[in-house]
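Minutes, project check-in
Item: structure for the 490-residue chain
Input as provided by the requester:
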Amino acid sequence: MDKNSKTSTLSTSLRENIATLKSLLPIGKSFDLITRDLYLGEIRAYFLSINGFCKTEILQEIFSDLQYPLFTKDDTIEDIVRYANAKIGYAQVTISESWDEILQNVLSGPSALFVEGFSKALLIDARSYPARGIAEPDTERITKGARDGFVETMLFNTNLIRRRIRSTRLTFAIHKVGSESQTDVAVAYLDDCVNHDLLDTLSHALDNLNVTALTMGSKSLEELLIPKSWWHPLPSILLTERPDTACSYLSEGHILIIVDNSPSVLVLPCTVFQFTQCPEDYYKSPLVGSYFRLVRFLCIPVSLLLMPLFLLITAYYPQLAEDWKLLSTGAIAAPRLVFYVFAVEFLLDLFRYSGSLSSSRFSGALSIVGGLLIGDIAISLNWASTEVLFYGAITLLASLSITNLEFSDALRVYRVFLTLTTGFFGMPGFLIGLALTLISVATTPTFGGMSYFWPLAPFNGTALKSLLFRSPTSKAQPCRVWDRGRVHKK
């Protein structure tokens, strides 16, 4: 039999079915494949499962009942469906005659039972996946609120959502992605709130993805759904590991994409304003939450433009820099100032990268010691100046204040590009670099052709106000679906 065949069905001969299994699976070679020859009365049966994916206690109970003398006093099995309904009390049992369906189920966790004389197999879903504990995500920490987070097991993630939204309209539609991995991908939505055009477009895209495996989980799926050019560093889909955040978007009419083996959930449709939101705002009073939200908005231009503008003024307009007292040590030659800026950018990125990868026990001490010691030595060796270190530190703080890491890293790429064009070409370079950056932002692709700048374009004043200011809970209920524009179907 061809291993790639997906239309073949089982035989009534158990011997032929076992031979087919051994041709399709590395039985006897792969240690994690469990097989057993069984007798149900006088009828031969064959059991197949994957070690570590099944709940041994449940299977022991099932087979101890099946082989109990009172259950097997009838030596023959005449109807496999009636037999399953009468003898197996476990809830999650299905019957299949397709090899493709059987293999997909076995490789996903359920066990298969083949019975002599029947061209159908019993699929017993007593799976149990290894999973880590549900804990607060490191990248989305808050001072108050829930401390749970998504994990790598999709069923746990759907449970976390269902626990918060107990609606009869909440739907989890399952898809298989990857010709080899057959990764489970669930699309979650509220049927009375979702944009059905966007939902249909997404379902069609998931069913027609030409990929062997989602090697990096939800991130791989994001890049497959929205192919982008290298000059588009901004993220096009929001990823979150917080169930409360995901559920708030779900109740507003968004679609969630849950990928098995990934702790991140994708949110569609996505706008640029979503990357500035933080659940911390809603655990504070409306006035305090609005203040810190506006501070984060201010951090975006500071992170992007502070260093290029400082370099432009001090290197090419020294008289203006002296009048504004931007330099305390007098004018610095433009080439040396450019070198200082890039040296500080490299050092600050090195601290940030090493601190993010090191253990939490050492990252804080590493940042403080590195900033004080290496910064002081860099000034003594003329690798940097006090002013450049100061403005670089402000830029770094502004970047860290942006809650979404992907968005912050994209701004970092834009800032380096602007610094390069400004350092080498002065004012013309700054203006051209800024124009190219704005073009890159404006042409950032989105899924379904939805507007990346909604509610600015198309303009929606009510929605824009709710994004800029934290409204009281009584006035922030998602009672209707906001129109984000027309879906572009492919």
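Outcome recorded: The longest helix spans residues 405-442.
No further action items on this chain.
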